[in-house]
Amino acid sequence: MDITNAVVDMAYEIQSAVRPHLGKQTSKMAAGRTSSGDTEFAIDEVAERAIEKFIRKHELHIAYYSEGRGLIKFGEPEHLLIIDPIDGTRPAMVGLEGGVISIAVAPYSTDACLSDVHFGCILELKADRLFTAAKDGSVRFTDEGVDMPVRPTANTDLDRISWTFEHAGRPAELVSRVLSPLIDRSSIRGGVFVISGTAFSLTRLVSGQLDAVVDVGNRILTDHPEFRQQFVRAGLGGVIGLFPYDIAAAVLIARMAGCCVTDAYGRSLDDTPLLDTSESNISSLVAASNPMLHAALLDAINAGMEKLST
What pTM does this model have? Predict the structure, then answer.
């Protein structure tokens, strides 16, 4: 079975297993902690079981890394799959849009980095919207099987951007101190959203629904390690942030669509190890539909960081 076809088929099988549980009270039950220290919910466990069932059914020789299971190998793997079976668990467990299945493909190596990802697949849980991209530059967006336009916006006006920022497990007071000027500028004539699903948010750049996606959590912690205890409290005992499985597929898809994606310093994410979910490998993110907007966002974030310092 061709690996790209297998990945898309796997995404649909996970979707089929998870859909009956969307918005159900039982889905909200905590089932433990993930490999990264985040809370694992009952609905996550349903998705994790669907992955292993698919691999065994099709006798695939692959290795995969998932949020809930860590690294698992089947046979003699040629490919490494980085899977977030539900990115946006919190929207999914209450039945909102925002939950997606995210699968990235790289050659098998325990040293694989984000730059090694050569195929990405993101499938929505509630709707049959599918985003795929290959490293050769091809990107595709379909809705119910119908090809849709890939159209990142040309908006560069910070007063009119529609954007989302991440806050789950990040100290709200610190994040708001950095981003509040940007929030105030754009909340009326643009739009400010908190979606709690980075992969979903990045695909909205591809569809043209959003202009930007921002996560400044790890930049705050890196620049101000004195705030670490606030991050530990917000993460209920550990530092939570943007991990490789959150963005492995979505970064490739957004880049192939022409979007600009870096960390919150403006640096490349290419060297991010795919299999490391330690605190030292948490990333920040600034993604924009075009380079001019990306530069303007970085300027605003730099100003917000100076405000935080004082």
Answer: 0.92
Q: Can you tell me the distance from the alpha carbon of 6 to that of 1, in angstroms, rounded to the nearest whole number?
A: 6
Query: Quick one: tokens of 235?
Result: 């993460």
Instruction: Write out pLDDT tens, residues 134-155.
Output: 998 889 999 999 999 999 999 9
Count H helices and E strands in the chain, helices first. 9, 15
Find residue 30's DSSP bridge partners: 41
Residues 6+ apart with CB under 8 A from 292: 156
If DSSP codes are grouped into helix, strand and coil, which group holds residue 87? Answer: strand
Residue/partner pairs of 58-63 with CB below 8 Å, 24 or more apart? 58/1, 58/6, 60/1, 60/6, 62/3, 62/108, 63/108
Give the residue among 304, 9, 8, 32 at the shortest CA–CA distance from 179.
304
Residue with tokens 């050659």: 107
Rounded CA separation 217/142 (Å) = 32
pLDDT tens-digit series, residues 36-83: 555 557 888 899 999 999 999 999 999 999 988 899 999 999 999 999
Q: In a 10 Å sphere around its CB, with 0-12 CB exposed, 13-18 middle and 19+ buried, how is residue 250 labelled?
A: buried
